[in-house]
Structure formats: structure tokens, C-alpha cells
Write a structure and sequence with these properties.
Helices cover 41% and strands 20% of the residues. By secondary structure, it is α/β, with parallel strands linked by helices. Strand 5, helix 4 and strand 6 form a beta-alpha-beta unit. Strands 1, 2, 3, 4, 5 and 6 form a 6-stranded mixed beta sheet that branches. It has a single domain, classed as Flavodoxin domain (Rossmann fold, 3-Layer(aba) Sandwich). The radius of gyration is 14 Å and the shape is globular.
Length: 157
Amino acid sequence: MNALVVYYSRTGSTRKVAQAISDQLDGSMEEITEPKSRKGIIGFMRSGFEAMRQKPSKINPITANPADFDFIIIGSPVWGGSLSSPVRAFLVEYGKVLGNVAFFSTKGGSATPKLFAQMESLVGKAPVATLELRQSEVEKQAFAERLDSFLEKVKNT
């Protein structure tokens, strides 16, 4: 499978999940980065504000061409009950050229269906699979069984 895992991670949680997915699929990985830092309380507040307003952020160019991959797995943290603004920016730019997609989120909870709906709208198609993980699951690395189920759907596409 020619897969690319694309993600944004402010604190490292989403990065851990992206790495686990990439390792199991033997796929490529691309981190969405920004020219401006989100560290500290100001970065945290700006993140929530942008997400609630559904405002894409400015992101740095990525190295991979998503159109070159058969499958794109996209990961985002939940910010302010919404999609993170860096992932929103990626999907605004590349969403319509993506092949098969799957989505994952870190934090989970009642906001995740809204986040996945926003991602689906920006991509223009339903994901093959979705995975939501709570912060505690990621910190304890207690998500192997749920990850296996998610990846089984991806591999059977």
C-alpha cells in the first residue's frame, strides 16, 4: 500500500499516533508545520480561537505530493471542539486531490464527530475509517487494539 500519514501535533500526542500508524503500514509520514509557534498560553489560546472560528492557519510547504499516494491518513488534535487550524489549512489546499482517506483524532469525546464531519466536507468524500483516541490512551500507549481495527479497515480498501 502506498500510504502517507499527514498530521499536526502541538503537544506530541498526535505525532505518537501518526508514528504508530506509519510504522504498521510501512508508509511515509509528513508533519504539518507552521512558521509561527503555538507554544505557551498565547499559542494555546490562539489555537482554540482559530479552531472555533474554523480559520485555516498559515502552514509551511510540505515535501511530499499527496496526489502521489493511493491512501492518505490524516490526523488532527481536537481544538475548541473543532478541527485544528493547521490541518484545516492542509485540507483546504490539498483536500480535493486526495485518493482514499482515513482520519484520526487525539483527545476524542463528543467533539470528534464534528471534527470528522469538517474533514469530510473539506476532502469531499467519506473516510474509509476513523479513529478517535483520548489523551489518556495516547499517554499510556493503550490503543493498540483500536489501532489494529482502524488499520484493518484501511488495509482492506
